[in-house]
Amino acid sequence: MCEAMPDAGVARRGRWPRTLYGRLVLVLVGGMLLAQLLTGTIWFDVRYDQVNEVPARVAGVEIGRWLSTLEAMPLPAGSKAVQVRPGFEARPIAAPDPVPQAFRDATIERAIADAIAVQIGAPRTVHLQHVALHDDHGREARVAAVFGARSPEARYELQLADAQGRWWQVSIRTGQAGMHLQSTRATAEYVLRIYGLRMGLILLLSLWVVHWLVRPPGRLSEAAEALGRDVNSPPLDIDGPREVRRAADAFNRMQSKLLAEFDSREQLLAAVSHDLRSPLTRLRLRAERIDDPALRARIDSDIVQMQSITDSILDFFQGRAGAPALEPVDLDALLVAIAADLTETGAEVHIDGRGRIVVPA
Length: 361
Fold this sequence. Notes:
With about 350 residues, this protein is α+β, with helices and mostly antiparallel strands. Among the domains are: about 20-195, no CATH class; about 260-325, Helix Hairpins. It has helices at about 10-15, 20-70, 105-120, 140-145, 185-230, 240-275, 275-285, 295-320, 330-345, and strands at about 80-85, 90-95, 125-135, 155-160, 165-175, 330, 360. A 5-stranded antiparallel β-sheet has the order 1-2-5-4-3. The protein has a two-stranded antiparallel sheet with strand order 6-7. Helix 2 (about 20-70) runs antiparallel to helix 5 and helix 7 (about 275-285) runs antiparallel to helix 8.
């Protein structure tokens, strides 16, 4: 047996909230969260620079001292790699081999170059190629070193030129010079203040703003439901933004047109039902002259049924707002009309005198 497959469009729509309120909240909060995550990368860059500030300057000072010593003596031919200390090695190279630099490492490169210039009294060309951060356990882990390590270390791979124009490939690993960072506390404060407090405020503000935005459409929906129950329900207040005012005005105009259409139909039906009374009266009088009792009974039954229908229509419209108002009745005119109806049936009717009586409505 074949089973109906669910419509893909319905399935996709099912992932969204069903209400306009929910969709607006999702869009606003989702957009603000995305923006907050993007701005969070800025804080990561700031924190990254803070973690590298001391190691970069210490590395610059050590490299500057080494360069001062190196430049003060002639370099022997065939020089090989030099280990200045454990974690600080240098080797001569024929020419620089620039490596594309990460955008966040430019600040570190300037810090190292500035420290070297201060140490030797003159600037030197420095190309920072790679930065590696190590956590408290000596493992290379950039995120852990930035967010959780108390004494993170940094290893820098760079190329620099000495005063004689000779190029050196340098690898140096330095720490925080005995200081301890409060990375965990800083991270906790950032998460609490930025992602906790701010996102809570954003959520509350979004809920309030969305509630304020969807209130006019909500009133329009309630008015439509009220109109379905009672066409004479009160019209909408025309206020709020321009689009909402236009929608409310269009809704009120539609309600006015419906009321006018219903009133015209009601008046037509009431007039037709009222005008049918005279023909029914004549039919009833003519039926009385039928000799066949069975035929007369059937005709009387049909006349009674038609009279009941017209009476119910008139009673219904007389009880509704906007029904035609009652009018006074001139008894003399009424008697003349009845006499004319009876005359049409063959009866001889004479009216003697006039009462000049008008029955008020």
